[in-house]
Amino acid sequence: MTEVIYTERLIIRPILLSDYDNWLDSQNNRLPSQYKHDDGFKDISGHNFEWFKEYIEECSFLASEDKIRVFGIFDKESSTYIGLIDVITLSRANVDWAEIGYSINNQYWKNGYAYEAVSAFIPYLKDDLKFSRIDAVVSIDNIPSKNLLKKLSFSYECVRKEFIYEFGKWADQDVFYINLHD
């Protein structure tokens, strides 16, 4: 199984304990929030090395259980942590169905990193993890993410009504999907 994915500019791989300083620098250099769905700069003072170690251990355990896999997105040249991409197993019974998520730290936006990372990750989901359907669930008004999914050939499926609690209320979410089976 491939655990490291290389693109022209990126390395996508599981986050390691040795990535802590790199991860911390990237988080501390985030810009203020750019729009509603951007966390922007936030206080991560509680995210010390011990917290990071527990996070890495939990990610490793969940991957071994085929529940969730979390990968860091790193600049190939500088090894800078840019963001993350994850996949959650929704069902293996007859459908091999998963949900993908991705996040690029806002200081690296508008460089095509999300497109490059997700487009390279999809063959890994099909060939290595053997998923046949991938969902992506996004806020109705998250236009940049919806445009990215369309560019990646995801199809719009439906609205999940009052699916997520965010901004103090239950909000609808759009569901996009891509079928990977032959």
Can you offer a commentary on this structure?
By secondary structure, this protein is α+β, with helices and mostly antiparallel strands. It contains 4 helices and 8 strands; from the N terminus they run ββααβββαβαββ. It has helices at 20-28, 49-64, 113-128, 143-151; strands at 5-6, 10-14, 68-75, 81-91, 97-104, 133-139, 155-166, 169-179. A hairpin with a 5-residue loop joins strand 3 and strand 4 (81-91).
User: What oligomeric state do these chains adopt?
Assistant: single chain
Instruction: Give the radius of gyration.
Output: 16 Å
Going by helix content, strand content and strand pairing, the class is alpha+beta
- Helical amount among residues, as a percent range? 25-40%
Head-to-tail CA distance between termini: 20 Å
Number of helices: 4
The sequence of SSEs as H and E is: EEHHEEEHEHEE
Number of strands: 8
Q: What is the strand arrangement across the widest sheet? A: 1-2-3-4-5-6-8-7
Question: What attributes does this structure have?
Answer:
4 helices, alpha+beta, eight-stranded mixed beta sheet, about 180 residues
Provide a compact summary of the structure.
Helix content is 27%, strand content 35%.
Helix and strand layout, with pairings?
Blueprint: E1 5-6, E2 10-14, H1 20-28, H2 49-64, E3 68-75, E4 81-91, E5 97-104, H3 113-128, E6 133-139, H4 143-151, E7 155-166, E8 169-179
Parallel strand pairs: 5-6
Antiparallel strand pairs: 1-2, 2-3, 3-4, 4-5, 6-8, 7-8
